[in-house]
Specification:
Helix 8 crosses helix 9. By secondary structure, the protein is mainly α. The chain starts with a helix and ends with a helix. Helices cover 78% and strands 0% of the residues. It has 10 helices and no strands.
Length: 200
């Protein structure tokens, strides 16, 4: 292996170590407690080394959020492979979203909190656009060949996301909600949303 390749491999390893250390801190102390100096101490490098990879702690948090959106999309796609009926696919998409948000609670909170400080979430999180397109494809399947306007797609996306985010928040508040109850609530809500789409 040449020196150039060795340097590139080392850079990749250091970057991964920075993100891994940052993620452990976020899980343990919350994202607000993250600091470049803490990351540097954890990986036994000086703060300037960390700054040579990331401009500031916000840049680290944005990168962790990007990884979160990629993980979310992978979870959804794995679930969608198992079903073909359009209604079941929409249920699968939103159920996978809810389960990801519940299982990866700290990461999910980070993804949807860091974005509030970003001017353009579409540019900051390209995987979010992928998720929205995935949702658009699934909602289009529900209307049996009729083309939905962009406004209708956007409206239904916001309805579904508002509902799921609300259910996620309730699960954080009421820690004893049975997963079966989540499934029941999700199915009832999706049924109502689907009926609305079919009438539009």
């Amino acid at each position: 292996m040449g020196s150039l390749e060795r340097k590139q491999r080392q850079k990749t390893e250091v970057r991964a170590a920075i993100l891994q250390a940052a993620w452990q801190m976020v899980k343990k102390e919350g994202w607000q407690a993250l600091a470049i100096r803490k990351i540097a101490d954890a990986i036994e490098y000086s703060p300037p080394i960390v700054y040579s990879y990331f401009l500031n702690k916000e840049a680290v948090l944005i990168e962790l959020s990007k990884q979160g959106f990629t993980m979310l999309i992978n979870s959804i796609q794995q679930r969608l492979v198992l079903v073909s009926d359009p209604k079941e696919r929409m249920e699968a998409l939103l159920t996978a979203f809810l389960q990801f948000a519940t299982k990866e609670n700290e990461l999910y909170q980070l993804m949807y909190t860091v974005g509030t400080g970003v001017a353009d979430v579409g540019k900051a999180f390209p995987a979010l656009a992928t998720f929205i397109n995935l949702f658009r494809e699934e909602i289009q399947r529900l209307v049996k060949g009729n083309t939905l306007t962009e406004e209708t797609c956007r409206c239904n996306y916001l309805i579904c996301m508002s509902f799921v985010h609300g259910l996620v928040s309730l699960n954080r508040y009421y820690k004893d909600i049975d997963p079966a109850m989540n499934d029941m609530v999700l199915k009832k809500a999706i049924g109502g949303i689907i009926n609305t789409i079919e009438l539009s």
